[in-house]
Design a protein that fits this description.
The structure is a homodimer. With about 180 residues, chain A is mainly alpha-helical. Chain A has 8 helices and 5 strands, in the order E-H-H-E-H-H-E-E-H-H-E-H-H. Chain A has a 3-stranded antiparallel beta sheet with strand order 2-4-3. Chain A binds a DNA duplex (30 and 30 nucleotides) through helix 4.
Chain lengths: ~180, ~180
DNA sequence: TACTGTGTTTAGTAATTACTAAACACAGTA
DNA sequence: TACTGTGTTTAGTAATTACTAAACACAGTA
């Protein structure tokens, strides 16, 4: 008994919804991406609406977020009032733009605040019991260095674009 | 006018709370970790309570989650009824255990479902217009390969433990 | 056995987030 | 100018999540 393609599509969409939620995005976002990703042709908003069961409003705002993250692209056809949406299928490209997007985010602000804390220590303007000041300084510094390492690694990841899987294997061999 | 250490600690704690929220964890979790991370000595539960302003109940459950993720360690002292908590300061170690923890998570279940979908295609048991079936198959497969690459990369990251920053730089040079 | 000090669980509330329904804006067309 | 078809914004609701307050369990001690 063969499985219908439409069932497969539905399963896949549900899977991406879960993954989306897992990473702290609305599950609707995952669903919208899935629908576009599995469509051979770009889809207009109302088509996304009917395939996901969300309302126009929700799709309108979430598809915009997806576009800002570079996961989907919006464009219009001449002589057609509708906008069309298409999924980005180069994930390394998407990752790059997501990371860029996050650059100006709350996360980065928090990281920068750690850095500023460190600078206060280094300008010697922190008062308190010497041993404790030193301890806290070392800890804050260690965290800062860890963030830097992760940041460098992230830069490495976005370079994976157009390089593909082979190089990930290379990385592994360096680390052995 | 020198800055008091206690102010610094407070700023740092707020910063980690934000970072915690950004990654989809409760902000209280970040605060608890920060307090422990900046303490030169292990702290009992009631001390965490007073330094974070959370209630016993909240600290009790969240500290357990942190322990499961390997970000803090709990232990008891002989002849002392209290439990004591200490932050893990080797972040690579923490990352490794967080990734392990996630292995059995919803995320992994979702990823596995993508794999199963793929297997259905490969056993030829999907019905539908041939061209469309093929298109969807290719797309699902591409996503699966991407997940694999990320997975491999994650394995690489956890190997960074005890290797440190130098090797991240090495990685970068390979990618140039 | 009752009491004290510890951590845990539970029932409920507060805060946040995702989403809906509907008003709206605006461009193109009769 | 009114009408139609599009996407957007807004006000409010539903669902979820983080957290509190308080009951509870349990081990050790008088």
């Amino acid at each position: 008994m063969p499985i219908k393609l439409s069932i497969i599509k539905q399963d896949f969409t549900e899977g991406l919804s879960q993954i989306s939620r897992f990473w702290g995005f609305p599950k609707g976002m995952g669903a919208i991406f899935a629908v576009l990703y599995l469509s051979p042709t770009p889809l207009p908003l109302d088509e996304i609406v009917s395939q996901t069961g969300l309302t126009k409003g929700a799709v309108s705002t979430e598809v915009r977020t997806l576009a800002r993250m570079g996961l989907v692209h919006r464009f219009s056809k001449l002589g057609d009032r509708k906008d069309y949406y298409e999924a980005e299928s180069d994930f390394y490209k998407s990752i790059r733009s997501i990371l860029k997007e996050r650059q100006n985010s709350e996360f980065d602000r928090a990281i920068r605040s750690v850095k500023e804390t460190l600078e206060k220590f280094e300008s010697g303007s922190v008062s308190g019991v010497e041993a404790e000041v030193k301890f806290v300084y070392e800890r804050v510094k260690a965290l800062q260095e860890f963030f830097n390492a992760i940041d460098t690694l992230a830069s490495a990841v976005i370079k994976l674009e157009n390089l593909g899987f082979v190089n990930v294997t290379k990385i592994l061999s360096v680390l052995k």
